[in-house]
Structures are given as C-alpha cells and as structure tokens.
Amino acid sequence: MAVAVDAMGGDRGPSVLVEGAVAAAREFGIPVVLVGAEDVLAAEVRRHGAGGLPVRIHNATQVVGMDESPADSLRRKKDSSIRVAFDLVRAGEADAVVSAGNSGATLATAMVALGRISGVRPAIATLIPTLKTPSVLIDVGANVDCKPPHLFQFGVMGAVFSREILKKPDPRVGLLSIGEEDTKGNQQVKKAYDLLAASSLNFVGNVEGRDVFGGDVDVVVCDGFVGNICLKLSEGLAESILQMLRTEIGSSVLGRLGYLMARSAFRRFRRRVDYAEYGGAPLLGINGVGLICHGRSGAKAIKNAVRAAHNLVEVRLAQKLAASLDAGGEGLRAAP
C-alpha cells in the first residue's frame, strides 16, 4: 500500500517534503513514492539516510507553481509532479496521493485522473480541534459556489469520514448558519437544511460560528467559501494566541516562573491547535484517496499526512463514500 508524495509542491521545497515522507516510511513502515525531479530527490533521499527504507523515486519533469491556474496546469503540464502522482494511482502503482502544492491544481488533477463519484461534487474536509474531540469541517475550499444538494452530499461524506476515521458511530451533523433556528440563513442554507433534516443523517440543525469549537457537533457543513475563511481564521487565531502567550510570559519574572510550572500544559495545547498534527485535508468524492496539505507544511505535517492517507486507503473510505452516496444517504446507518 504505497503513498505517492508530490515532492516538488509546497512553499518549503523538496528537502522538507522528502524529510517528512522518509520519516513516515521509517516510523510507520509505509511505502512511499517520491514524485519529482529524480536527481534532486535522489540527493535528498541520501541526505536523509533512507537506504533500506520502502522509499522509491518516480521522475516528473514539471512543477505546478502555487500561483498557476488549475486549467493551465492541466493543459500545459502533463508531466507535473501532481499529475504524475495521480497517474500512478490510476495505474495501480500507488494507492493515494499527498500534495502540499497548488490545491486547485491538485483538486482538478484528481478529478481528471481518478474521476469522481457519479453525481457528486468533491469537497475538502479537515479535522478541527474542539473542547472535546476533533470534528470535521467540510467544505474548506473546493467549492466556493454550491447548491443545496451539494451541501447535503457534504453532510453525507463528512458523516462517513467521521465514522470511519474518528470512530464516531452516529456522527452529529450540523449546518453552519447565522442562527440556530431553521428559518435563519440564506436560501441556499434553508433548502440544504430541509434536505439534511429529511435524511437518515443524525442532523442536529443549524450551528453558529461560536459553537463550532465547542465539540457538540461532529460534522460542520458549509460551502467552500465560508469554510476556507473559517479555517484560515481559526489558524490565524491559534497562532496569535500562542504569540500573545509568549509575549505575556516573557514580560515578567513571575510569568517565566509560571511557564516553567505549566509548560507541559502549554505543549499539549500547542499540539491540539497545530495543523501539522492532522497532516492534511482529504479530498472526498473522488474515486480514490488524495490529501491536500497546507502550503507551509513542514516535515511533521507531511509525515502525518502520509499516515492519514494510508489510513484512508486501509478503511476503504472512497468505496464507503460511494456506497452511502449511491443510497442517497439512506445507507449510512446500515453501512458496515
């Protein structure tokens, strides 16, 4: 069960991506295929001491820039590291793809190379920390314009993902809106509410932004425009809180002494809000497994993304998504 890693994407270059992929092979025993410029990757593999590990290189001569349009990359760069990685999955030489590169190009390439579940709008799901256990936020950027049936599909896919990965047997699904009442929200949200309420999902109604991190809802459904803003707002808030804490702690002797006494708690808090702990965001609704990582992902995030991709393949998530969506959501409770 091999995971193909787009080793040329992201903001931090092949060195960090190879380091993370090698760490996944070393710590978890997961076979990894590094896709990109063969000479560059070979040098990095040697530098990270990957001899004897299940790591191999597959050459790709082109790289998709972070600012390139998905359509242009598909048309002009058929030998890009993103395209070659998904082609390996299609050819059966790999089982999943991890990329920290251009997210739009990754989404478009996945749909072209692997196809999508019939009639389904693929969406990006991400795990978010809460006061209780992690929850799923879907969609966080794949679809900025959605129709109510798409939001319903996101609810189904998020519930299956929560059940299979977070081991929540009957996930509580909420619809992100401006109020808890079913009369709140725009027309898109109101119509999606009716679809979700009429399904077999454990739909708990509308969820306000202030309740997302409370942990009382397992799946939060929204369109990609709203979801991407929520995701980046929460990332920025977490980073700002950590910086504020550092400033306050360092401003006095008592603050530094207090930190020494509570540093283990601070470390646990940092881990809970660190996106690197979750690895990447799975692209749900395609006929296969693809994970989109943050462009700033370091080695730790890539390592955890490879492990997450391996887990998604292992539980046959794509097949279970297709089965539930084919049943219009009604197969959720009966699915194994």
TrEMBL record:
Question: What protein family is recorded?
Answer: Belongs to the PlsX family.
What EC number(s) are associated with this protein in UniProt? 2.3.1.274
Q: Which gene encodes it?
A: plsX
Q: How does it assemble?
A: Homodimer. Probably interacts with PlsY.
What's the protein name? Answer: Phosphate acyltransferase
So what does this thing catalyse? Answer: a fatty acyl-[ACP] + phosphate = an acyl phosphate + holo-[ACP]
Q: Which PANTHER family match?
A: FATTY ACID/PHOSPHOLIPID SYNTHESIS PROTEIN PLSX (PTHR30100), PHOSPHATE ACYLTRANSFERASE (PTHR30100:SF1)
Q: What class of enzyme is it?
A: transferase
Superkingdom in the source lineage: Bacteria
UniProt source species: Dissulfurirhabdus thermomarina
The protein's job, in short, is: Catalyzes the reversible formation of acyl-phosphate (acyl-PO(4)) from acyl-[acyl-carrier-protein] (acyl-ACP). This enzyme utilizes acyl-ACP as fatty acyl donor, but not acyl-CoA.
Give the subcellular location: Cytoplasm
The pathway it acts in is: Lipid metabolism; phospholipid metabolism
Question: What Pfam family does this protein match (any one)?
Answer: FA_synthesis
Q: Where are the transmembrane segments?
A: none
